[in-house]
Amino acid sequence: MREWNGSVAFITGGGQGIGLGIARALAKRGVRLALADIDEAALARSKEELSSVTDVEVFRLDVRDREGFATAADEAEARLGPVDLLFNNAGIAPASALPDLTYEKWDLVLDINVVGVVNGLQTFLPRMIERGKGGYIVNTASGAGLVGHANVLYTTSKYAVVGLSEALRQPAEKHGIDVSVLCPAYVATGILEHTDGLLGSQTVHKGQTRKQAEGNLQSGVTIDSAGESVIAGMEAKAMWIHTDGSMKPYVRMRMEALLDSIPS
């Protein structure tokens, strides 16, 4: 069993959604929390809730902002101690019809969902390596990062996070740092509203597609269940962490098709 008590976690997107579910699960285990989010109101609510359980510091952060990341990391470690648990969780759920795709939309989505993860890694990995005391990194992708989906923007960004995490795992192990990638199926969050607020009408689900996406999300597991799944996955040092079993048949179909495509 991992010794949680006394660790320090930095969670992007930690003010709401899956990030808050992870924060709650960690708080119960005595982990001190640095929560980063672009939504200051969500951060304030999360701090008020969790401060009665553990030490909590909050930071308004746009994960595209590398200088902001460095500043938040410095302040978090000054107040709470060295960060040894990193959760690159912040992300958006974009959508765009193919005829409406633009360079600007690609840049926006990849900057948040992929480069945001890279920024978190590049901020904290050198610190963990230099200290030589190990650590754990969990990057949030999606089930859409394991099985292709017609939402090209979202799927591309989440496949990138899965590939990054898989590639990172072995070299990080040499420094005592474990790596997992969270591939949630549907989780009951407000990510669509959050995406709306950030992107306006640029890259959002609309019409019937929006209604279906909202229904799918609300039919999913709770953020607290997702948080406990993350803890269980970390205890097992799992490469891939899942929030339920709904992706299994689709992953099986993909893997069988992939294997069948390879010449014997």
From TrEMBL:
Any one GO molecular function term: oxidoreductase activity
Pfam families hit by this protein: adh_short
Domain of life where this protein originates: Bacteria
Keyword annotations of the record: NADP, Oxidoreductase
Location of the Ketoreductase domain: 7-194
Alphabetized InterPro entries for the sequence: KR_dom (IPR057326), NAD(P)-bd_dom_sf (IPR036291), Sc_DH/Rdtase_CS (IPR020904), SDR_fam (IPR002347)
Ribonucleoprotein found in the keyword field: no
SMART domains linked: PKS_KR (SM00822)
Family: Belongs to the short-chain dehydrogenases/reductases (SDR) family.
Protein name as annotated: NADP-dependent 3-hydroxy acid dehydrogenase YdfG
Organism of origin: Amycolatopsis sacchari
Lineage of source species: Bacteria, Bacillati, Actinomycetota, Actinomycetes, Pseudonocardiales
